Amino acid sequence: MIWKRTQPPESPSPQVARSTPSPSSPLSGSPASTAALSRSLRRLQWLGHFTNGAIALIAIGGIVLLQQATIKRAPQGLEDPVLAQDRTRTQLQLAARMPSLGFDNLLANWAFLSYLQYFGDTEVRQATGYTANEDYFELMTLRDPRFTTLAPFISAGVAYYAGKPEKSVALMNRMTDVLDPKHQPDAFWVWRFKAFDQYLLLNDIPATVASLEMAGRWAAMTPKYRRVAPFFQETADFLRRDPNTLAVRFYSWNEVYQAAVDRLVIQRAEQELLAMGAKRGPRLPNGRSQFLPPPGVIAR
Predict the structure, then answer these.
(1) Where are the domains of the chain?
(2) N or C, which terminus of the chain has less Cβ within 10 Å?
(3) Rounded to an integer, what distance in angstroms lies between the CA atom of residue 232 and that of residue 242?
(4) What pairs with residue 289 in β-bridges?
(5) Could you count the other beta carbons within 10 Å of the beta carbon of residue 211?
(6) What is the DSSP string of 32-61?
(7) What is the DSSP string of 224-257?
């Protein structure tokens, strides 16, 4: 499965001036010149095939590195899992430095699929930790910073599991630097998850407010998500009035709980919500609980 990302439209290329062949030009039509032209065209055609093949091989080389990072994890019982993870990190770092020659999206997709297998190997991850998470997302955001689907995975995998919220924010900064809500309507999600990490883990209130306001502005620019824009501005206003407000913490952790993609992150969010006095409510269609706000917090 290949995820497609929309790109900003490119400006039209300028017209290339065409010259008229002179009588002495190989295009004049004489038998000798026609034969010479045919030989030249055959050479150019062969060179074109060779060049295209070389480009494809370089791109496929990056994919092979990622495939090896996945395949070589299979016989975990035959080698130390920490050494296996170190090798995976080296392969990812090498793939990040290789020239892609136009195959960036393809490499990013392969890295994402490889990451899902790596992250899902819970038994091995309990022995090694999630050190390679950072390398996976370094590669993915470098190759395709418009891959907005990555935002919740970066927050969970890098900020929470790898314990590096600063790195998580830096990776999402790389994305917001190039995203445009006019071309990527769901781009506001990146600001949303960046705000979570800034507030919940870094306690950077000014940066959190700025990210929430940007999420609201970007959401307001898209008809599909315009209705959720006021929520972000309201949350930013809450933070301005009271940076330690219980309401912001409740709604932030509730967002983490509802958007989480991993069981352990869901459990952590549940624990935080219950610890602040929230109560479990009815079950939602996705099977998760609807948490009721703690005393003193007005339900929305």
Answers:
(1) 53-144
(2) N
(3) 15
(4) 283
(5) 26
(6) HHHHHHHHHHHHHHHHHHHHHHHHHHHHHH
(7) TTGGGHHHHHHHHHHHHH-TT-HHHHHHHHHHHH
